[in-house]
Design brief:
366 residues; alpha/beta; five-stranded parallel β-sheet; 13 helices; 20% strand; elongated
């Protein structure tokens, strides 16, 4: 059985999450808590495999409770996040502090939206419960959280990756053969993407397109947060803008990212089609578009995530002469999307997340 503790100040949410989780015979909600203080006590007592944690709570909020969890008893934590700009910013901070992922708090006592997250919630809990948390102990972010243990409750911890950036490696010799990088990522993605982009120099000689599975309210704050801590420019993609080297474009939530190769430039397209896609944005849609637009000049990168989004598109990109990098099993929060690429024999290299930035840079010259 997978043991879960639910921490939320809303009685309705505690009941709703407990009911959804308990429908799976492999999951047991062993306790529920009304705030962070009670949550910490119950986590110590029950030693759950997974914790769901609200952000806004009385007495002790979710971010403060999360810091204590990661310092004292690291384990997978899913944040329960409101779909607002403020909720997005707090959730991204939580993931930087060690939370694995989030679930949307788009529910109310009169809302029927609750059924929309049931399957996703149970799948996430089961997948992350089975993943070893060894990556947490190795993470510079978690090390900073532990180092901040003496700070007052709720005090800010260093957010920027400037202290964790690897030394810049000189560019490989030879001529550049690739100038467009496409990244597909899902569960556990924000910290992974931040780690990768933080490595890249300001004059990175390629454009970057990112399909991160994320609600529409989150992608703008996500891009702004990355832009504030990276040397390259990071922005939410706008339809029709010219793709530039040294800029990373994050697909808006609920939309797909494509490219349109013109005679003398590449334009970024933000589109609705295909509407029937399981994920919006879709990594496969992005990879297929890169394959059609620039062919062998494209480099596809698949990072942590559930499912197999990106597999079909990567097949097309590889057939056009592009290259493919996959994040290693041991450094993924969920080894789903990269595993699909690896199992299909499409990955040219399997890379630890700490080394992915350097691998991307060197693969522009292969």
């Amino acid at each position: 059985m997978i043991k879960v503790v639910v921490v939320d100040d809303s009685a309705f949410m505690r009941k709703a999450l407990s009911t959804m989780l308990s429908k799976d015979p492999e999951i047991e909600v062993v306790a529920t808590a009304r705030d962070g203080e009670e949550g910490l006590e119950l986590i110590r007592r029950h030693q759950p495999d997974v914790v769901t944690l609200d952000i806004e709570m009385p007495r002790m909020d979710g971010l403060t409770a999360l810091r204590h969890i990661m310092m004292e008893m690291p384990r997978p934590v899913l944040m329960v996040s409101s779909l607002t700009t403020e909720g997005a910013e707090a959730t991204l901070k939580a993931m930087e502090l060690g939370a694995v992922d989030f679930i949307p708090k788009q529910l109310s006592k009169v809302s029927l939206d609750i059924v929309k997250i049931e399957d996703d919630l149970r799948a996430k809990v089961k997948l992350i419960a089975r993943r070893r948390m060894s990556h947490l102990s190795r993470s510079p972010l978690s090390a900073r959280v532990r180092a901040a243990g003496a700070a007052p409750a709720g005090a800010a911890t260093p957010a920027g990756p400037a202290t964790e950036r690897a030394p810049r490696s000189p560019r490989p010799g030879g001529s550049q053969t690739r100038d467009l990088v496409a990244i597909g990522v899902s569960t556990g993605g924000p910290p992974a993407v931040q780690k990768v982009l933080s490595f890249l120099p300001k004059d990175f000689p390629a454009g970057i397109l990112i399909a991160q599975h994320m609600p529409a309210a989150f992608t703008g704050p996500f891009a702004k947060r990355l832009d504030s801590v990276c040397q390259i420019t990071v922005k939410e993609a706008e339809d029709g803008e010219r793709l530039q080297h040294g800029v990373a474009y994050v697909a808006p939530g609920g939309k797909h990212l494509r490219i349109d190769q013109k005679v003398s430039r590449i334009e970024v397209r933000v589109v609705e089609e295909p509407r029937e896609a399981l994920y919006k944005p879709s990594a496969s849609v992005l990879f297929e578009s890169v394959a059609a637009g620039v062919g062998r000049r494209g480099l596809g990168v698949v990072l942590t995530g559930m499912g197999s989004d990106g597999l079909d598109g990567m097949r097309v990109l590889k057939a056009k002469g592009g290259r493919a990098l996959a994040q290693s099993d041991s450094t993924c929060v969920v080894y789903g999307m990269p595993k699909a690429i690896v199992d299909a024999g499409l990955a040219d290299e399997i890379i630890d997340i700490d080394d992915m930035g350097e691998a991307i840079l060197s693969n522009l010259y292969k």
